[in-house]
Design a protein that fits this description.
By secondary structure, the chain is α+β, with helices and mostly antiparallel strands. The chain has 14 helices and twelve strands. Strands 4-5-6-7-3-2-1-8-9-10-12-11 form a twelve-stranded antiparallel sheet, sandwiched between helices.
Length: 386
Amino acid sequence: MRKLLPARLLPSLALVFALAQAASAQAPAPALPPVDMRHALSALPDSQGVLFVNVRRLVNEVLPKLMPPAEYRKMLAEAKQVGFDARGVEYAAAAVRFTEPAPANGLPEFVVVIRGNFNADTLLALGRVVAGAQNVKTRSESYGGKTLEIIDLEALNKPKESADPNAAAADGGEEKPKPKPMPYPEVAVAALDASTLVAGVPAYVRAAVDASGGQGGLKASMIDLAAHDPQALWSLTAELPPSTVDYLHKAGVPASQETDEMIAWVKQLSFAQGMDALNYTTSASVLTDSPEHASAFSGLIRMGLLAAQTALSREAAKKTGKDAQQARTALAALKTFVNRTEGNTLHLSFAVPQRALNALIRSEITKKSAPATSAKPTRRGRGRRR
């Protein structure tokens, strides 16, 4: 957000959240149902890449286990200082798509959807007030029964003209540095419903409005991969374009006929991390162009797993103490590895016990948050009396 909006707007955004929190305190929103990941993804527009984060589970279930209690309470308190209840956010999803022809800045279009126990219409109304107070140019547009607030970011690049003609002379005749250009000329914000906000490139926000109405949504294959793990805390899913190999070659990856062919087999990818009653899980799903190619990837991974297990077994036998324990933990995780195919889709996953990982992460957080001990002052010896 710091790259998309100037620093002078950040205090205003904090004010918006603070006023919205006050409004929600007067008229509390009803409790939201559990996160339905598949339903949330189905409301996204057609995209080449989607990141979904189950914020509710991360904040309310995961972080209390990983962070020391004092650090966790401090995080919640800091969020509330700007009127934001971190525990009330349900989910956040970000999507990107590439347009043809490519824009001049070479960046894809983006859209972000956030759902929580805030009042979306109140936030938009307060946003308009703050934008007016900051002299930010906005305009309203009606689309699909929704009101889009479109912010002119290009206008923020233009330096303000001083009303005092002697101002430049008073500053020694030096011109103020020009602000960095915004990566996107306009950004739109809209309320999809009472508790859901969407922001992004205006054309993409309109597509999100259409998708929320059941038109032009995310492909079924993308939803299946992204929501494959019902316990996922987050998932990242991407559709590989046909020109992926060309992009890799331009990035410096050496050309190889066998490798290029294997990359061309892959149509979609998805990575996810989840949490069940006992374990943290990591999974990946690869959609290929045929069942034979999915089986070929599975065979390669099987050989790699055997080599990794052999190496970790040797490390666990050689080392002692903390290093040996980490090697044994990694070896135990590999033994839970699942490598199976389902048609033309390859599914991979492994699990790590919550107790072991929680202890390791808490230890690292405690080390970083502990204040540095000051060096004890050296005592100077007393001089001899003459």
